[in-house]
User: Which sequence fits this backbone?
């Protein structure tokens, strides 16, 4: 069984990418006993601090070194987290320079793919948290990924900029990764009490149809508090609405992946 690689991407900031990567990965590791690897590809390194490993560096360095140097041993970039079954390729501020340094490197779009391919056998899922831009870091994530999970916050401008992301996905498919798919669109920061939240959710479902997860992530104070304690929200307060939503999302992701795997077997069989 080789890992399914999901890039969590949306070039808009503040849509819940990092929160989603951390909590979905933790939910899969804790409640479903999956082996999960998180890859922090955002120079802000919020994913790394959100799992309590701020400032930690693996034996071979951080994701910055993995992208800009020749990788001999991919495992040497992986750190264990406090959560059993959950590992991390950490980031730090150095990653800010990677965007420029990658430009002159050979196979600059495929550096992440080269790092992750040898690790696939050791994990069930690999989640890549991407920066809020469509530069070379995000491109590396999309080239390495099997599919993209797109978090969208239920606000007025949610669909704005999505055309750019979809166009980027098309270009990546055409040039580097023909199998790249949209795993799903996740509605985040949903407030069912507002007409706007309901309307935006309706518009997004109309636009993406069955690509939108049934599970929605509510606005939830615990989701905001957890990172400052360096623990995933689903461990910080498992009974909070945010934690329950991510546990439900993990189940939905597994069900979708299993049915997709069955369909592809039927298709090939």
Assistant:
């Amino acid at each position: 069984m080789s890992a399914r690689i999901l890039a969590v991407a949306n070039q808009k900031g503040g849509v819940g990418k990092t929160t989603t990567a951390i909590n979905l990965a933790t939910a899969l590791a804790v409640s479903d006993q999956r082996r999960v690897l998180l890859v922090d590809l955002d120079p802000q390194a919020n994913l790394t601090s959100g799992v309590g490993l701020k400032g930690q560096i693996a034996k071979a360095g951080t994701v910055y070194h993995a992208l800009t140097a020749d990788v001999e041993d991919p495992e040497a970039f992986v750190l264990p987290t406090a959560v059993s079954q959950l590992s991390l390729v950490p980031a730090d501020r150095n990653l800010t320079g990677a965007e420029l340094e990658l430009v002159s490197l050979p196979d600059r779009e495929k550096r992440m793919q080269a790092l992750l391919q040898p690790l696939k056998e050791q994990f069930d899922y690999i989640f890549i948290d991407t920066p809020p831009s469509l530069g070379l870091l995000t491109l590396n994530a999309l080239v390495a990924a099997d599919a993209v999970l797109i978090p969208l916050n239920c606000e007025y401008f949610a669909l704005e900029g999505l055309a750019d992301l979809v166009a980027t996905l098309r270009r990546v498919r055409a040039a580097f990764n023909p199998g790249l798919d949209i795993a799903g669109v996740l509605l985040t920061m949903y407030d069912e009490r507002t007409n706007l939240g309901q309307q935006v959710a309706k518009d997004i479902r109309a636009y993406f149809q069955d690509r939108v997860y049934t599970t929605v992530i509510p606005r939830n104070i615990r989701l905001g508090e957890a990172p400052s304690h360096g623990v995933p929200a689903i461990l910080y307060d498992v009974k909070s609405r945010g934690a329950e939503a991510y546990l439900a999302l993990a189940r939905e992701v597994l069900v979708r992946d299993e049915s997709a795997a069955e369909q592809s077997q039927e298709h090939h069989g």
Notes: The beta strands are 4-8, 36-40, 79-80, 86-89, 125-129, 147-153, 181-190, 212-218. The first helix runs from residue 17 to 31. Residues 4-268 form a domain with the Rossmann fold fold (CATH 3.40.50.300).
